[in-house]
Design brief:
alpha/beta, Rossmann fold, 2 domains, globular, binds adenosine-5'-triphosphate, binds magnesium ion
Length: about 290
């Protein structure tokens, strides 16, 4: 939590203004029970905060619990310990105002792009007279107006990810969380969509928590990067990316951020491999 204090002239009174973080994750732990195989301790006292309008990327080795953490923030899973708040309100299972772009493609194949996005609005119970305006606005924002009547198999992978982003953004969630939204795309489309996401973020002022495996993507987009360890996962490093946008991937400072982060990830990935080789295979038997 950030503390701003103002001292009034001629007065002894000090006014403390508590600037509430948009998202606060405090000491969150989560394990999974896997029957006879035992228990997997996935999250181990994860703590961080995100300010309103910040773009934060979360990096970590495969299987370290990134999706588990996002699902907990989204109220799809319950933490065993700790607390998550959005605008100071405690997140409970089934109760969290986030827009979620899932790791797997999640458009309904039998609905058009427009109907998929409309679905999000209907679920939220948005008044009928607002639906048309919101749809028009978001379809233009993500540059899909021309493809609104296409079915998901009639658009490209990049357009499908944009449609998912639109479906998440159209309800104006407090936070947009994205789980490897750009994986499975070719490098060129991926780079283009990173720019698109930054454009949408700048236009909407949204708060974004963005999970990626791609260090380059994190350094290109984020204000701040959080790095998770191998399981049981903690936040083991944090980087403020003090580079002006648009960023240049070939700049020496850019490359230096990437190098430092990759060094940390390499060690964590190695630990994950050692666990698997020792036969622990992500599980610690009870
Ligand atoms: N519902 C579940 N039941 C049991 N174990 C689970 C469940 N969901 C996840 N796990 C286990 O928790 C660990 C973390 O999984 P999670 O999907 O959160 O990792 P991740 O960091 O998102 O991985 P990736 O980078 O591959 O997407 C894994 O060992 C996984 O097997
Ligand atoms: Mg995942």
């Amino acid at each position: 939590m950030q503390l701003n204090d103002t001292l009034f002239n001629g007065s002894r009174a000090i006014l403390f203004v508590w600037k509430m973080p948009k998202l606060s994750v405090r000491n969150v732990s989560k394990s999974f029970f896997n029957g006879e195989q035992g228990v997997t301790e996935v999250l181990d006292g994860i703590s961080f905060e995100i300010e309103e309008g910040e773009f934060v990327c979360l990096l970590g080795p495969s299987g370290c619990g990134k999706t588990t953490l996002l699902k907990t923030i989204a109220g799809l899973l319950e933490a065993d310990e700790g607390e998550i708040t959005i605008d100071g309100m405690v997140v409970k299972r089934g109760k969290s105002d986030v827009g979620y772009i899932f790791q797997q493609e999640s458009l309904f194949p039998w609905l058009t792009v427009r109907q998929n996005i409309e679905f999000g609005l209907k679920i939220k119970g948005v008044a009928k007279n607002q639906i048309e305006d919101r749809l028009e606005h978001i379809l233009r924002l993500v540059d899909l107006h021309e493809y609104q009547n296409n079915l998901p198999h009639e658009i490209s992978g990049g357009q499908a990810r944009r449609a998912e982003m639109a479906r998440s953004l159209v309800t104006s969630p407090e936070i947009l969380i994205s789980d490897e939204a750009l994986s499975n795309l070719d490098a060129q489309t991926r780079n283009h969509l990173q720019d698109e996401i930054l454009r949408i973020w700048e236009n909407t002022g949204s708060t974004i928590l963005f999970v990626t495996h791609n260090v380059d993507e994190a350094v290109y987009t984020a204000d701040r990067i959080l790095v998770m360890s191998n399981i049981p996962a903690k936040i083991i490093a944090e980087f403020d990316v003090n580079l002006q946008r648009p960023r240049e991937r070939t700049d020496s400072e850019f490359i230096e951020y990437r190098r430092k982060i990759l060094e940390i990830l390499k060690v964590e990935q190695q630990k994950a491999m050692e666990r698997i080789e020792k036969g622990e295979h992500q599980f610690s038997v009870l």
